[in-house]
Amino acid sequence: MRVNKQKLVLVGNGMAGVRTLEELLKIDATLYDITVFGAEPHPNYNRIMLSPVLAGEQTLDEIVLNPWSWYEDNHITVHAGRKVVEVDRVKRIVRAVDAQGDVVEAPYDRLLLCTGSSPFMLPVPGKDLAGVIAYRDIADTLTMIDTARTHRHAVVIGGGLLGLEAANGLMLRGMTVTVVHVNAWLMDRQLDRVAGDLLRKSLEERGLKFRLGAHTQELVGNEDGRVKAIRFKDGSEEMADLVVMAVGIRPNVGLAESMRLHCDRGIVVTDTLQTVTDARIYAVGECAAHRGIAYGLVAPLFEQAKVAANHLAEMGYGRYVGSLTSTKLKVTGIDLFSAGDFMGGEGCEEIVMNDPFGGVYKKLVIKDDKLVGACLYGDTVDGSWYFRLLREGLSVAQIRDQLMFGESIPHDAGQPHA
């Protein structure tokens, strides 16, 4: 046992922060006395699995990643349901408050900020009405489940992955659901128009309704102060007892800014995940901006966690150089995959296979004999192979004719060629 251990404080009891602790404990479990602050009253849970909970496919207990016993077994002091409101960087003290306003303090030698992100709420009249919520945490999920028991009409604003998952879950719980999306096709960040239209058609067949290219003007309330309709800029309305906003997220940088840490699209960090302002302070996850990018997907956050843990363990040789991300999703049972520059453009060639009756669409984008983008709908079995070709920049000149048929190519697929 070490005496005079250093003190590590984690602000944010979510997936990125706790994964960093797991990686650190693997390397050296004796280096720090660890204290964790979490604003939610729950242990670390898998936020990605909130959609199956909403859909009734899993329970909240089943999505917990680290039960309370894990913190106890690893001698971690945890303050759940306490939000950090101040950090004194001179005295190196973290201050948090609970729901009753009681203050808890913890000193630190190293501080790990994993404050995540907040859902963006459209700044329209009526956004503060009862029945208007975001979709971000357990509390939001429980509100949606409870509302579905007593109300009929739901509107989800946002046709991205989160919005579609919310819409599907509410539909499975018996609500009539309309998805409102400002752009011309669904999931326009992950899919091109053809794939987006195939997705819409499939979801319409299951019972969802859509209003695409629709601009929300205001949310209309009833005499009790609850939302009753959404009004669009063209003057039309859609009935709504519940409005779920899923229109994007923003890094939570309020605490960091109050600490006078440099923020720009997130808390600015170096390749070691240390903040550029204060080397004692690290930031990992959706709140961190690395080389101008704040990542919202799990894979980059876990890559960051590994590097941050390496440095916190005083190994000091890891570097995070950024992530090339791919999106492999299952939206209400429909397989989707996209990576790289799947929209193509000048100087690019496109290989396309479109089978609308079979529900399969594949688009590969090639530039300078290299695969630079892929968009797959309905059949994603070769997604990881395409991603490897894309990530490693391998020449596809020799296999171009067979590229669409996947990795089961008999010869030297994806090898570098002179």
TrEMBL record:
<comment type="similarity">
    <text>Belongs to the FAD-dependent oxidoreductase family.</text>
</comment>
<dbReference type="InterPro" id="IPR050260">
    <property type="entry name" value="FAD-bd_OxRdtase"/>
</dbReference>
<feature type="domain" description="FAD/NAD(P)-binding">
    <location>
        <begin position="7"/>
        <end position="309"/>
    </location>
</feature>
<dbReference type="Pfam" id="PF18267">
    <property type="entry name" value="Rubredoxin_C"/>
</dbReference>
<dbReference type="InterPro" id="IPR016156">
    <property type="entry name" value="FAD/NAD-linked_Rdtase_dimer_sf"/>
</dbReference>
<keyword id="KW-0274">FAD</keyword>
<dbReference type="Pfam" id="PF07992">
    <property type="entry name" value="Pyr_redox_2"/>
</dbReference>
<dbReference type="InterPro" id="IPR041575">
    <property type="entry name" value="Rubredoxin_C"/>
</dbReference>
<protein>
    <submittedName>
        <fullName>NAD(P)H-nitrite reductase large subunit</fullName>
    </submittedName>
</protein>
<keyword id="KW-0285">Flavoprotein</keyword>
<dbReference type="InterPro" id="IPR036188">
    <property type="entry name" value="FAD/NAD-bd_sf"/>
</dbReference>
<dbReference type="InterPro" id="IPR023753">
    <property type="entry name" value="FAD/NAD-binding_dom"/>
</dbReference>
<feature type="domain" description="NADH-rubredoxin oxidoreductase C-terminal">
    <location>
        <begin position="326"/>
        <end position="392"/>
    </location>
</feature>
